[in-house]
From TrEMBL:
It catalyses: UDP-N-acetyl-alpha-D-muramoyl-L-alanine + D-glutamate + ATP = UDP-N-acetyl-alpha-D-muramoyl-L-alanyl-D-glutamate + ADP + phosphate + H(+). It is an enzyme of class 6 (ligase). One of its GO terms (molecular function) is ATP binding. It is found in: Cytoplasm. Residues 127-306 form the Mur ligase central domain. It comes from Pedobacter yonginense. Keywords: ATP-binding, Cell cycle, Cell division, Cell shape, Cell wall biogenesis/degradation, Cytoplasm, Ligase, Nucleotide-binding, Peptidoglycan synthesis. This is UDP-N-acetylmuramoylalanine--D-glutamate ligase.
Length: 465
């Protein structure tokens, strides 16, 4: 087994906590990029921001207010290749021409998370996984905040980590960490690392190899020591496989709904048991959880272990897990019209997320799915589609692979090209007692700005019915 938990970047020289070390270039002027620019400026660097696309007006205004120079819709090489370090948006792949040129010149390319961590002594709870990381991050933050901890929420959710490091003084951060972020993190260490699951996602960025994507996810435990904590799902096949090649040094706590564990969390007789220390067990009926469905039992277990590791009171943990409200666009109930429930799960941008959504449905479903296919394997949905889905409404420019996957499993598959059209057709296909579920299993960029735009357009269309 490989017990070396440090993944180094040969182009990085340790700069921890240093200021004013020359020119820093930020690639990408979204939430993470602008936050990184503000922090870099605060620390005395000469900062330049470059975005190959259009910069949103409010981010332009932030850069202008801070007098940070920037460019949009291009990457001017002479303004970028003279950096001492580059902070890259997670959305920019390593194969982008400008990244290749930076690497060839030996200029370090890192993530906003890596950069920001140099300038804070706050402890971090870092949560990754193919599915459930937003929900688990928000639930964990909710529990910690209710318990009175001085805690911030950042990463792939909410306000930029770097921006908060520049302007706040938190003792703890809950960070939602994507594989794209992990790819550009080298010296960073999570005090508490959570790996929820590993299922095929974003394989187009990983040479269509699941083992490459899994290796990226395992970077969540890089640099951890025996003083740190690692929380993982003992029921997840790919996580267990990855752990055979990368053994954690941190104190490990598994969670499971099919077996008991000595330390960690398990399910028995519809009751969650969480214990991290002898004689201090938290128990809670799954019927009292705010988040319902099998996938959310896992999410609640992971958050509960974090809370127990931090020695929070059982009463506080139970109360928080019972009154939490889930995020927008994740199994969000929109309306009930003519006895038909409309549910917005636009955040389901991969097949596994859609599997979780269908698994939680208790009625017949008209499923709205489709968009930018990321190399999806729809086979895992077939049994649930056969048993629960009466019709599929495709929402995307190219729906051929959905037709090919499910034409033998449902009687009706219809193509649509707008949220309004999809909602109207789904409404006519459903009957009283059914659910219309938007759970696309695909990215949104063919017809929408992002999954939020897709979900918002769907909700607006439902309300017009």
């Amino acid at each position: 087994m490989n017990t070396n938990n440090s993944i180094t970047n040969p182009n990085i020289n340790a700069k921890s906590g240093l200021t004013g070390q020359g020119r820093v270039v930020i690639l990408g002027a979204g939430e993470s990029g602008v936050g990184a620019a503000l922090l870099a400026q605060q620390k005395g660097f000469d900062v330049f921001v470059s975005d190959f696309g259009v910069i949103a007006d409010h981010y332009k205004a932030m850069l202008e207010r801070a007098s940070i120079p920037f460019e949009a819709e291009k990457h001017t090489e002479e303004s970028i290749l003279n950096a001492v370090e580059v902070i890259k948006s997670p959305g920019i792949p390593a194969t982008a021409p400008i990244i290749k040129k930076l690497v060839a010149k030996g200029i370090p390319v890192i993530s906003e998370i890596e950069f920001a961590k140099r300038y804070t002594n706050a402890k971090t709870v870092c949560i990754t996984g193919s599915n459930g990381k937003s929900t688990t991050s928000l639930l964990t933050y909710h529990i910690l905040k209710n318990a009175g901890l001085n805690v911030g929420l950042a990463g792939n959710i909410g306000q930029s980590f770097a921006a908060q490091v520049a302007s706040e003084s938190y003792d703890w951060y809950v960070l939602e960490i994507s594989s794209f972020m992990l790819d550009d993190m080298f010296e960073f260490k999570a005090d508490i690392a959570v790996l929820l699951n590993i299922t095929p996602d974003h394989l187009d960025r990983y040479d269509y190899k699941l083992e490459n994507y899994a290796a990226s996810k395992m970077r969540i435990i890089q640099n951890q020591t025996a003083d740190d904590v690692f929380i993982y799902c003992a029921d997840d096949e790919e996580s267990l496989k990855a752990l055979q090649t990368k053994q954690p040094l941190a104190k490990s706590y598994p969670f499971s709904i099919v077996q008991t564990v000595d330390q960690g969390a398990y399910l028995e007789n519809n009751t969650i048991h969480i214990l991290t220390e002898p004689n201090n067990e938290l128990t809670m009926s799954i019927s009292d959880l705010a988040l319902q469905g099998k996938h959310n039992i896992y999410n609640s277990m992971a958050s509960g272990i974090v809370a127990k590791v931090l020695e929070l009171r059982n009463e506080t943990i139970r109360e928080s897990m019972g009154n939490f409200k889930n995020i927008e666009h994740r199994l969000e109930h929109v309306a009930k019209i003519s006895g038909i429930d409309f549910i917005n799960d636009s955040k389901a941008t991969n097949v596994n997320s859609t599997w979780y959504a269908l698994e939680s449905m208790t009625s017949d479903v008209v499923l709205i799915m489709g968009g930018v296919d990321k190399g999806n394997d729809y086979n895992m949905l077939k049994d649930l589609v056969k048993s629960k889905v009466k019709a599929i409404v495709c929402l995307g420019k190219d729906n051929k692979r959905i037709h090919d996957a499910f034409e033998d499993d449902v009687d009706v598959i219809v193509n649509t090209f707008s949220a309004e059209e999809a909602a109207q057709i789904a409404f006519h296909l459903a009957k009283r007692g059914d659910a219309v579920l938007l759970s696309p299993a695909c990215a949104s960029f063919d017809l929408f700005k992002n999954y939020e735009d897709r979900g918002n357009q769907f909700k607006a269309a439902v309300r017009e019915l």
